[in-house]
């Protein structure tokens, strides 16, 4: 079973398309404020995707790690650290 639903995969594909668009903007010499605005939008999109992945898969991830000998508390802390570190 795929742990990532179609919605999250589509979000990542959309961000990938946005990145290609940003590269094209840069290659075309577009205004730097427009490029930064688009980069900010991609960053926000990726942050939301990360939050969704952690929220939707937290229980499964914790259970998997517990089977590997990692406590639930440590697993949850690792998930929190991933989210906080990315900001």
Automatic annotation (TrEMBL):
UniProt cross-references to Pfam families, sorted A to Z: Trns_repr_metal (PF02583)
One of the record's GO molecular function terms: metal ion binding
Coiled-coil stretches: none
Superkingdom of origin: Bacteria
UniProt cross-references to InterPro entries, sorted A to Z: Metal_Tscrpt_repr, Metal_Tscrpt_repr_sf
A GO BP annotation: negative regulation of DNA-templated transcription
PANTHER family membership: TRANSCRIPTIONAL REPRESSOR FRMR, TRANSCRIPTIONAL REPRESSOR FRMR-RELATED
Protein's recorded name: Metal-sensitive transcriptional repressor
Protein species of origin: Trichococcus pasteurii
């Amino acid at each position: 079973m795929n742990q990532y639903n179609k919605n999250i995969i589509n979000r990542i594909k959309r961000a990938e398309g946005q990145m290609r668009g940003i590269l094209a903007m840069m290659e075309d010499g577009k205004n730097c404020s427009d490029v930064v605005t688009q980069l900010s939008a991609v960053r926000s999109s990726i942050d939301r995707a990360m939050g969704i992945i952690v929220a939707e898969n937290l229980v499964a991830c914790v259970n998997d790690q517990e089977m590997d000998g990692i406590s639930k508390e440590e697993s949850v802390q690792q998930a929190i650290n991933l989210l906080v570190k990315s900001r």
